[in-house]
User: Fold Alpha-acetolactate decarboxylase from Lactobacillus corticis.
Amino acid sequence: MATLYEHGTLAMLMAGKLAGTQTLGELLKHGSYGLGTFDGLDGEVVILDGEVYQADASGKVNHVTDMQTTLPFASVHFPENEVPLKVGENDFASLTSNLTKSYQLANVFAYVKLDGVLDQVKIRIAPKQSKPYPGLLEVAKHQPTFEASAISGSVVGYYAPDIFGTVTAGGWHLHFISDDRSFSGHILSLSTKGLSGKLEIFDSFEQHLPIENPEFRQMQVDTASLQAGIEAAEH
Amino acid sequence: MATLYEHGTLAMLMAGKLAGTQTLGELLKHGSYGLGTFDGLDGEVVILDGEVYQADASGKVNHVTDMQTTLPFASVHFPENEVPLKVGENDFASLTSNLTKSYQLANVFAYVKLDGVLDQVKIRIAPKQSKPYPGLLEVAKHQPTFEASAISGSVVGYYAPDIFGTVTAGGWHLHFISDDRSFSGHILSLSTKGLSGKLEIFDSFEQHLPIENPEFRQMQVDTASLQAGIEAAEH
Assistant:
């Protein structure tokens, strides 16, 4: 039995609630592996074995140890029932759709960590925003991208069922981090001759909300336009 | 800090996955108050202080003690930070919209238990289905309703944010149970001169999924039609 913990929601980011609402110290109580972003949508975060790496919009990767750093949105878990995983030659679309089908993930939450060499990888990194914060859809229009080839590292992230697609990123949400921790971000495309790693399927998804935060409590969510906005911002 | 625990999803019921996937014994480990339905969508369940009451489609209320009874869908919690609550003269629409506004519940999960006299209450009770199970939308077309007047009891149930509206019932989902435990069901309408009770706001929502169940793993969810179907089935 394993739990995926999430703080904040994708709907909050869409509504421009980009201020950090949980400290890194608190987040790490709920998991040692995960993904997230910092206060103001500052970069792309990968957490591996309790170590926190943030790729900022300059393309630099920072090893973050200040536990007072805050996050508006993050997902973490403790590994509990990992199973070994191997994938062959793939691009991003075939990798993700093969994983979903082969392991029957459509209706569950899952995590993968796939290690090896990527022949090519393209990532994007969210740039830190200033108040008054725009919504995620606006930010998504102006995100720097970076490419690397013949790079050794890990593809890490979560699968979430479509019905949770306004709460978190529906489908696959994957980041890359190189073995030397110098290149990281949200994956837009990749190609590989093969990767191996681990898969964890969760039976529980714990959604934590910043209920003491007045801006969160007063937030207006337009559910009608939310799904279309998320499609545009996340894909 | 309080957690609302849910087993199963509304999307599963919509897809006709009505077989029980968790025992009552397991469910009660996660809460002593709550709502649910039994295997085959058999009735409307209210849980109060660990005691389980099921209204069946004949209108009878059964005090259930068999912990092997299974449920496809249920929400429970342990009271942790309840605040006192008082409401004046109301019908169902004004009661629920006033609660949402007064306590700023739009974006959070919450529970209310309101005790007192209802001048009028109309309830519906889901009738047990047989395999092959229909979806919730079909079941909703043929549900017996019951009415009572000048009846003393409790209005109990949950509020969920709209963005969780395919996972659980978005907005208010309230059941009634009379003080003498002889009349209970899912509330369609009510009127009262005043009720008093308790409100709990949750900072965590824990969604539990039956990941070992092959029918759940293979379930096809048509997300495009899901929201419209839920509107029709639940309102």
User: Anything to note?
Assistant: Chain A touches chain B through 33 residues (CB under 8 Å). Chain A has one domain: 3-234. The CA atoms of residues 7 and 117 of chain A lie 31 Å apart.
